[in-house]
């Protein structure tokens, strides 16, 4: 079993290499410890626990400040994982081990009034907030590279494809702007989801009853209000949002975060799929700056970054679906298995999103456009790439049916131009201009500029 905090080595999930340190078992353990410390500090914050006890607990267990995992507590992750089996979660053995590290006078303030789900949920939100912040940084880098590509390739004409076939002209800049809009939208949604992640503190069944009773000796006149202040103080210690209610069986924090992560991976998957297609040998319009090789074929220049991003995009939606299934099947005041199913699912989704975003940042920073390949692709369809435009332009002169029949007889660009020039009713038209794909780009330039200015195309 790995002892460095990694979920695994990434041998079979290379897109996740480098992401394990953000959410491995060691990181989760440190977050669990931080949650326990935060609760003790919150009790001191509402004048129930002695301030000196909270400071001793913080110092002994490695408190690093609001929003940070703990460090230096000395709990062994392998030992805790094995001990967690009998109770079904790691908090039960963790509390006993942490109390063993504390002075006898301070032990009563650890885990006071809390239930295991309070600790696990809050810890996972803490891990998600920190890992999500890294994902946002990577997505911002992707956006910057795509914006630069859209600007540089704004007017570079390429063949658009629909249903796998050449359709009409577009530009490489429009492709990049389209990818950019998807990534930007996903980053915004993820940022909002992370900002709203709440702490969890409800006690055994979400009523705060134990907290009220523990607060009553110090706050006899307003024990209920003191318990609510405790929840707010606890959330503040973790730098998480204050929950409206305990969300033991109302799992929107998990599903909304999961949906935002899936949307981010979707947007990156869209980019990866296009790059993989356009990097095909027979197309070659795009290439990665550092392609991968082959164990058998030395000539291969594989678009490995795009492939890895696609691997994440194929897995992420099913992980999101599992989170929704768990949320829909949460029962009573504590889920019996549905809650447990979320833990590794959410962590794997975070891991994939971070790995995909990091890979996409490197890919987009070095994406290479092959102008010669673009021209070669354009020539494959010849003038037929602007057939839509020709049908519109010729209809007033030939009628719809005759115009379409004429266009249908052409087999290549030369024959199309010959047929058009042979029509006496078209003598007043500039046939060369009509056949120019660069003159049939619609409002692409304006739309790209709006995206680059931070707006949205109408």
UniProtKB/TrEMBL annotation:
The record's section on PROSITE patterns has: FUMARATE_LYASES
Q: What is its EC number?
A: 5.5.1.2
Q: Which UniProt keywords apply?
A: Isomerase, Lyase
GO MF terms listed in the record are: 3-carboxy-cis,cis-muconate cycloisomerase activity; lyase activity
Q: What class of enzyme is it?
A: isomerase
Q: Does the UniProt entry include the keyword Cell membrane? A: no
The record, for InterPro entries, names:
AdenyloSucc_lyase_C, Fumarate_lyase_CS, Fumarate_lyase_fam, Fumarate_lyase_N, L-Aspartase-like
All copies of domain Adenylosuccinate lyase C-terminal, residue ranges: 382-452
What family is this protein classified in? Belongs to the class-II fumarase/aspartase family.
Q: What is this protein called?
A: 3-carboxy-cis,cis-muconate cycloisomerase
The species is Microcella alkalica
